[in-house]
Each structure stands twice: as structure tokens, then as C-alpha cells.
Design goal:
By secondary structure, the chain is mainly alpha-helical. About 75% of the residues lie in helices and about 5% in strands. The longest helix is centred in the middle third of the chain and has 58 residues.
Length: about 400
């Protein structure tokens, strides 16, 4: 859920923005952990379908944010004053939404706000993970290192997402093309062949009768079918945007035979790498878990991580808290974290876990790409064979009669 809040800092400065949490209590805890005194808080309703579509096209892509962060990091390493660096970034930024946000961040910095406070006012672009890492770096004086970490983190995310997208392009293209061909055959070709088959009095195979019936249905009701599909898509999107729908969607995805395991590995890799960066930045473990949870879209993982954060605040170790969620965190994760906790090298262990599962994701993706092409060709070939057999068998029987 998303909440709009207004609050005051310890210095009495007024601050307003948005915070995402599982419920109102979790949102209050998150703000309190940032030493904010809440003045008001209200729930923000999720955008409707058409608003979500507009927001999709008017968004800042990860690539734009990564390039901005890389350039920002280089400028900070070159000891360029913060205000001058932001002005230079404003001139270099191409994305209009990000360009406007950079301008406002620069104006806020010039007016006396810190960089993290300025970024927080642009919370629709910069995530809690991004802002909190900058905030902790301001305390230790290592903003340029934090920006370098963020740039590398965003680059790894983009590489992983690109690999997933490339792995899905081919099968999606083949399936869509096959469905279009099947629709044309059943809606156009079969209705024209049906009178010929009926007049010849040739017995038709069951598969031909089935496709002829489907062709008649498609030819007469194609507008209704399109309308039903559009309505179903809108209803499903709206449902999956609700809290219950998101939980249902996540459970379905994680329950898939092969993709479910891939999603688990990718989520663990992303979480542990984010937590490692936050822990290195000096953020307490419980708070680091809550911040890192915003980097994953799965509500199931978010809920498990919030429960783990609450357990840590009660004095429990992170490894013990994650051990209770072995359906989502493999035993190796909690065991390696336990070693890191006992040796005082938790951040290094989190790095190793992230590296291990990143390699696992890459290996699984490569195997899927190699396996999915022949399997897809066999399945599509079988359906295409049935379609053409339903046409050729009656023609063959007709030739035999004559």
C-alpha cells in the first residue's frame, strides 16, 4: 500500500512525500525509523488502468537512472561542488521527467536541503533504497562511494532484466504468430471450405468437425471475443493491482515448475546484494531489510522480510528469522548469513550469496533458452499439423470418392 505523509524532522523541518508499506502500522514504523515526527498520513489509492497506462509511457527507465547515477558518481569523485554537479547533470540529462527532477533536486540543494532530503522529494523516481543509501553516506562522508555502488547495482539489474527479456522474446513471438495464423485459418479459411465438404457428402473426421465448429464460432462472434478478451485483461490487471491480487499472482508465479525456482533465485540475489550495500553503508540490519524489500515486487517476499525485520528488533538473529521462511529462502542462505553473523562479516557473506545466485540465474536462463526452442517447435508443429490435417484429410477422402 502507498501512503502520503507530512512530517517534521528532528530539526523541525517540514517534509512531505510518499511511503510504501504492507499496512499503515508498517508505514509509521518506517517513518519513525527515519526519525520523522508524523503530522498526517493518508492512503493513496492505486491508479486506475488508464492512469497506469499513462504512467507507463511517462516514466524514467532504469537505463536513464543508471546513466545519471554513473555521471553523478564521476562528478563527485572529481570533487565538483554538489550544486555545480547537479546543474551540469541537468544539462546532460535527456529524459524530460528525470531532467525536471534533477532541476528540482538542484534547487532544493541550493535552498539548503541535504542531497538525501532533495532526492526524497522526488520519491516517484528515486527509490527508498537509493535515498537511504545516500542518507547514510552523507553521515560518513562517502557519497561518491555510495553513488558508485548504486550505479553498479543498477547496471547489474539492467543486465539481468535484459537477459530475461531476450530469453522471452522468441517464444512470445512464435506463440503470438501461431495464434494469429490459427485465428485466420479458423475464421476465414474453414468457413469457406465447409460448404464444399458438406455438398460432397464425404464423412468428415472428428478433428475437422471440431475446427469447422470453431471456425463458425469465430466468424460470427469475433467482435464479441475481442471485447471479452479486452474486458478480461482489464479486470485481471485491476485485480492484480489490489493487495489480494498481488499475493495471488505472486503465489502462482512462485508455484510454477521451472520459472518459480528462477524467480526465487533472482529475488534472493537482488535482495542480498541490496542488503550488502546498505549494511556496508552503516544502516542497521533491520532497517536495511525493510529498505531492500522495496527493491522486489513480490508481496510474499516483502511480507516475509518485514516479519524478519520485526524479529531482529526483538533481538533475534537474521539467520534465524530467515530460517523460518525456507519456502522462499533456501537453507544455504540462512547458513551463510549465520557464518557472517558469527564472524562479523555479514556484508561479505551477503555479497557471496548474491554472486552465487546471480550465476545460478544466468545458468538457468541459458538452459531455458536452449531447451525452450526445440520444445516450442515441437508443440507448435503438432498444432500446425493438426490444422492442416483437418483440411487435407477431407480433401483426400473427396479425391478417393471421385
Amino acid at each position: 500500500m502507498k501512503f502520503r505523509y507530512s512530517a517534521r524532522t528532528k530539526k523541525g523541518e517540514l517534509q512531505a512525500g510518499f511511503v510504501e508499506a504492507m499496512n499503515r502500522e508498517a508505514a509509521v514504523n518506517t517513518l519513525n525509523s527515519h526519525e520523522l515526527y508524523i503530522l498526517s498520513m493518508e492512503t493513496v489509492a492505486p491508479p486506475r488502468f488508464y492512469q497506469a497506462l499513462i504512467n507507463f509511457f511517462n516514466r524514467v527507465r532504469r537505463v536513464d537512472l543508471m546513466v545519471f547515477t554513473q555521471q553523478f558518481s564521476v562528478m563527485m569523485q572529481a570533487a565538483i561542488p554538489l550544486g555545480d554537479g547537479l546543474k551540469a547533470l541537468y544539462r546532460q540529462t535527456r529524459n524530460p521527467i528525470l531532467k525536471e527532477a534533477v532541476f528540482e533536486v538542484g534547487a532544493d540543494v541550493d535552498s539548503g536541503l541535504s542531497l538525501s532530503q532533495s532526492l526524497e522529494r522526488q520519491g516517484h523516481i528515486f527509490s527508498d533504497f537509493y535515498i537511504n543509501l545516500i542518507r547514510s553516506a552523507e553521515v560518513t562522508g562517502r557519497v561518491e562511494q555510495a553513488l558508485t555502488f548504486l550505479a553498479e547495482f543498477l547496471e547489474k539489474e539492467i543486465i539481468l532484466l535484459t537477459k530475461v527479456r531476450n530469453a522471452l522474446i522468441y517464444p512470445v513471438f512464435v506463440i503470438v504468430f501461431f495464434l494469429l495464423v490459427a485465428a485466420v485459418l479458423m475464421g476465414v479459411v474453414f468457413p469457406q471450405l465447409e460448404p464444399i465438404f458438406r455438398e460432397s457428402n464425404v464423412p468428415l473426421p472428428f478433428i475437422t468437425e471440431l475446427f469447422l465448429a470453431a471456425g463458425r464460432f469465430v466468424a460470427h462472434w469475433w467482435l464479441v471475443l475481442i471485447a471479452i478478451v479486452i474486458v478480461m485483461i482489464i479486470v485481471l490487471i485491476e485485480y492484480f493491482r489490489s493487495d489480494e491480487g498481488q499475493m495471488t499472482k505472486d503465489q502462482l508465479l512462485l508455484g510454477l515448475p521451472v520459472l518459480g525456482g528462477l524467480l526465487r533465485k533472482a529475488t534472493v540475489s537482488r535482495l542480498t546484494e541490496g542488503m550488502s550495500i546498505l549494511v556496508k553503508g552503516g544502516i542497521p540490519v533491520a532497517q536495511a531489510i525493510e529498505i531492500a524489500s522495496h527493491n522486489v515486487s513480490s508481496r510474499i517476499y516483502q511480507e516475509a522480510l518485514h516479519e524478519a525485520a520485526d524479529s531482529i528488533r526483538r533481538g533475534e538473529l537474521l539467520s534465524r528469522a530467515l530460517e523460518r521462511s525456507q519456502d522462499y529462502f533456501p537453507p544455504m542462505v540462512s547458513q551463510m548469513i549465520a557464518v557472517g553473523e558469527s564472524t562479523g562479516r555479514l556484508d561479505q557473506m551477503l555479497d557471496r550469496i548474491a554472486a552465487f545466485y546471480t550465476r545460478e540465474v544466468e545458468t538457468t536462463l541459458n538452459s531455458l533458452v536452449e531447451l525452450i526452442q526445440p520444445v516450442l517447435m515441437l508443440v507448435v508443429g503438432a498444432f500446425v499439423g493438426l490444422l492442416f490435417a483437418s483440411i487435407l484429410l477431407p480433401i483426400y477422402n473427396l479425391v478417393q470418392v471421385f
